[in-house]
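PT: before anyone asks, these are the final sequences, not the draft ones from last week. 1480 residues across everything. Please model them as a single complex and drop the result in this thread when it's through.
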Amino acid sequence: MTEIKNVQIELHTPHVLNSMEERDSKNLFDYQYDNIEKKGNYAQKYQSKNRKITSNRPDYQLPDNSIQTSKYTLLNFFPKQLFEQFSKLANVYFVLMGALQMVPEVSISSGIPTIYLPLGFIILVSGAKDFYEDYKRRTSDNEENKQQVTAFDGKDFVKIPSYELRVGHIVKVNQDEIISADMILLRSSEKKGICYVETKSLDGETNLKQKNVHVDLLQTFKSDDCFGQLDKRIILKYQAPTPYLYKFIGETTTSNLQVSSINFNNFLLRGCNLRNVKYVFGLVAYTGHDTKIMMNSYKARTKRSKLEVKMQQFILIIFITQFIMCIIASLVYSITYFNNRQYLNYLYIGENTSEYTIPYNFFVRFGNWMLIFNNFVPISLLVTLEMVKFIQGKIMTLDEKLNQPRVQTSNLNEELGQIEHIFSDKTGTLTCNIMEFKQIIIGNQNYGDILRSSDDYIRDDELLNYPQVSNVDFRDKTLMQAINDKNHIMHDKVEECLKMISICHTVISDQKDGKLIYNATSPDELALLNFARFVGFEFLGTDENNIKRISYQEQIIEYQLLEMFEFTSARKRQSILVQVINTGDIYLFSKGADSVLLDQVRLSKEELNKNEYHQLVQRLQEYGKIGLRTLVLSKRKLSKQEYEEWHKRYQLATQQIENREEKMQVLQDELEKNYEILGATAIEDKLQQDVADTIAAVKAAGIKVWVLTGDKIETAINIGYSCSLLTNNLVQHIVDEKEELLINERLDDILNKIPTLQTTQGQALIISGDALLHALKPDIQKKVAEVCGYCEVVLCCRVSPKQKQDVVSLIRGRNQLCSTLAIGDGANDVNMITAAHVGVGIRGVEGQQAARAADYSVQEFRELRRLLFFHGRECYRRNSVLVCYTFYKNILVVLPQFWYGILSMYSAQSLYDTFIYQLFNILYGALPIMIYGIFDEEYDADQLTDNKLQNYYQQGPQGVLFNIQIVLFWVFCGFWQAAILCFFPTYTISENFVENSGFTHHLWAQGTMIFGLIVVICNLKVLLFSNTYTPALLGSISFSMISYLLSWIILDNIPQAEAYVVFQSLFQTPNFHFGNILVIAAICSIDIALNIKLNRVLQKVNQNTSIKTPFSLNNLSIHQPPKIGGKLNNKAHTGFAFNCLDRDELEDQDKIDLYGIDNQVQSQNG
Amino acid sequence: MSDSKGFLHWLFFKKWHPVPSVGSTIALFSIIGVIFVALGIVITVINNNIQEVTIYKYDQKCSPVEYNKKCSFMYKLDNMKAPIYFYYELENFYQNHRRYVKSKSSTQLSGEEISLSDAEKYCDPIIYNKDLEVWQQDVYVTEQNILIPTERKPDDIASPCGLVAKSFFNDTYTLSLEEKNIVLNQTGISWPNDKGKKYKRAPNSESTQWIDPENEHFIVWMRTAGLPTFRKLWGRIEQDLEEGEYKFEFENNYNPQMFAGAKNIVLSTSGPFGGKNLFLSIAFIVVGVIQLLIALAFLIKKIRAGNSFGQKNE
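LR: through. Structure below.
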């Protein structure tokens, strides 16, 4: 890593080709490519060396542009798959058991490795699953690799498949195409060399980013067909591939030896979409897996649910128990045998044979016992669970109340019922990603807040009379009246305000198919402008002479654009200086945050206290509370002199080299003063349906919700309010510092403050991405985690995909037992989705990447509620029971043989027919529990989804249904029931004879009776703990018992079988029937009593932890007075937010990424 | 609902939610408890009406104790009603030992010849004639339990082979009252179907086998018992026995010292459910009482907790 850093420093030094030699060299382009290391793995070979390439001379040694995310090829599938299967401990165990079954001395199945059958089945199934999944990945890879791109082949632009692209190719990208490799921008169809890209798939932000051709290159490539010319060749030196999304360092050398440094602003990333320009040309710099997006993508890990992980632990415990029991049994045998060997002559063990000795006996019996205990570690569990989960997944997809959810990892069904943390993306997940203009305040008049029943409401049919625009939801006729009626009191104010809206912006207009189209980098501006258009003020465009035109009531008003002061997050305002061409008046129009603009109002103190101003502030607070995004509009009239005097100074400032920015800022500030407030606008970042309800319900269920967004703090807070995540009675802690020290102090501060607050008050942490970069460093991490622990709500703003992942990992790392769920819709959420325990993708407008990477995908955020509260909760409950039951069932079938050891000297005599024994887990005890696992329902689905009567969900996160106590309880039940099952039948029939014939029963009759009872008890047990009885459940239970009967009847007629005619004879024995009744009644009654006790204990646990803040969250509605508290950081929230191209932040990117590197190094070391 | 989606929907989604009330649970437990206690009492009464006589260690009753000799002793019996079953009982004999149980060949017993490898596989360690007991090596025991001297090669596969067959119990008994012989019916003492099907005589039985597998004492012996103390039926007395001093005469062939156990004779009459079974009577009463106790516990809780008890999560 240090090496790379050095190189970067080298590149940063001024790039002038000093030596004369180099200057004169005609052979500038005549060099051998040397971009790869000779040895090493992929990363060492291709990603360790800085590169130097010439345009149009592809480096064929560097990898091509193909990507491969699939794990296997046809050739290596088999060995790789085998390796993977046998790296699972369970599989190795079963293979060993199979081997043991083939040792004649030890075998209890006459040397046939019967266990290989189910094992083979398991391996085959999971192998097929892997194959299928990999096949899907392969096809999607192929699709992407075969995408056509337009590349320059030396003479002409030709279409080639994407994978053939090499570093050094010149590529043409057309509008709306996806950029297929990382490239530097050479030329754009736009004159100034600007182009716009949409980076949704990288960082999830939907606003456009501006990229530009480096000035020097703009000079070099002057036409679209100059790329073939020899003198237009350039050399590009740049750094080795790095995963830092916002960083590129390089330099170009043209044929006339002009060296210019290329940075991120001249760099296009793979996966972005080109927007707003017809086409661009680029020089490919990184291909395939070296591209930023690929280096940022993480291989999907195989996820396992908490239940499954715990289950593995319990299996291990059970295995150890088995091991110990087998050792005890074989020790007891070998010692008993040794002590009584002279009385066991009828066994004819020769004194000189090894069988006479303790060690031999011990080991052989140990093998016998291990095989008898074979079912103790339930091989059937894995198969059953897998099958049940698969069908559960299928049923989920068929749920009519969900919109065709997709289940990609049915392994995680029960994890959905244990979620403690939800990490949610904002755009497209909580919001529809649609800005809608809602209300406007002009003067002291509010427009837009209107009831549907009102006369002034614009009905749907009337809406057709207005211009058809998007992003506006404004139904107030009173505003139209004010516009149309020249004598209206508000007329002038309204007109002025709307004119201001329609010119104060950075939107570019465009004609497409005869229609006026706005190209906006900011969705807010688009909404504003469309609103102006809706009410009759249509912005027509800006021409070459910087004249802005608007059309209003069939007249065209022209404004000369004088200056534009851009929006930055520090300034929080955007201003435009214009001169009305007709009148010559000069105005400064500004829009921005109330906190900034209202401070600069040209009013005396008394006036400030006036009603009008207060109304505005109060309105803004109300807007803020319901999450509307507000902008304050203001103007200032300038006299000509004033302007000219200022303009001169401003001109001077722009020509300065030193401190130019600051000086300009000072001058800008000079103008942006003494405002007259025109009004304020409110735009709704439209939430998806029922988001607020869902979040409220999820929070009430005790789940922590974190929102991770690429947006700014203001936007995030706004959304927090609108989806009831934030309320005014939560104390907000905002961490927005950019330096480590400050952040540290801030966190300490917060930690000190928290205990002093009222306990009733909730906390919310709002942290920005920059702060997060530091906060995720190991030493601060702990503090952050601690603060987060206190907070009900955490909002992370301006976070990159990598950071989203880091945040998830932070929580995962802090508390291993805590289950996390990440939900998102864009490609930028993929990392987070793969990092969380459960990833949920939203199949939305932003494409399918997230949905594809996710474990579950839904159409809307609100479906999460049913997914968690009904499906998740029930799957957790059912699967917990299924696992416990399977343990229990196998204990029940194995342990009677252990107990019987007491009566047979622990000589490892099996009680059951081998054949029948093998069928137990396939035929007699498999189906009912599967039906239970799929169809059982404790409560009605809607009642659970509602989760209001009681917090039904809580049992999952608490892990109440599957923990060591519960498993031990089931194991305990297995033990005592097995004892009853062994001894009751034994003494019932072996002590006795059948009436009228005097016959006695033998060992096999006894075994048959025991086994029959096990089958009955196992199946009845399912009936006992089922909540619902379906015909299928009853049918399957009958099926299990009947199939057992049938197989005995078959066996009864085979003379060679040990159990020949046993069944018949048993049925003639009255005591057999008495014994059955006795055993069933004894076990069931005690079992019922114990389970009632257990359920009451569980219920108590549930009640203790039921809903903390019952659904009082409705009090968030606008009309309720704000609650006390929340004074600490938040003076009442006013809802300012504005999404816009932000120059400051673009320039900050470099800094940010240096931190990123540090972070990366540390995380690699750690 | 089932109309539109048909059978499958009915099968999986027609649901019943049976939630038993506390009252019905208590009632159920008490009813079952009462029935069980009653059954237990009935079985105890029946048990008490069954006469069972055990003559412990009958071989010790001869003096001196000698083996492979005839011997007799007197034993006083009460009145007993026919049918009376005559059992021999062995104590501390692990017929359920793993090594013992598996040491036999079902194929051979059903009258077929087996290969040497099969014999080694199934009958180990008793494979050849020479591995058999000395008395078994040069006789043929007929179906009627009569010994006929024959000669077989010691290196032929023993038939029947295996430990179970080798340890065949070969004491024989006669019973008389005042010199009047009492018939011990030794036919029909094995489970029907065993004889002739699972146990079948080989074609040249007399020359190849040391015992006829259709010998019913043999069949009874071959059905390995599940407990280390077991009874096996030896004969049936189909007449009522009067009170009196009975003479038991037996051929003392089987030596219980080799398993440090005892051999007993058991005579038992039968009740409607077969022989005496103390276990069942006790178990029924105990289980019944447990159920009554559970019912009582619920009742107490219900009274204490009032209505809230047993209401499922609501």
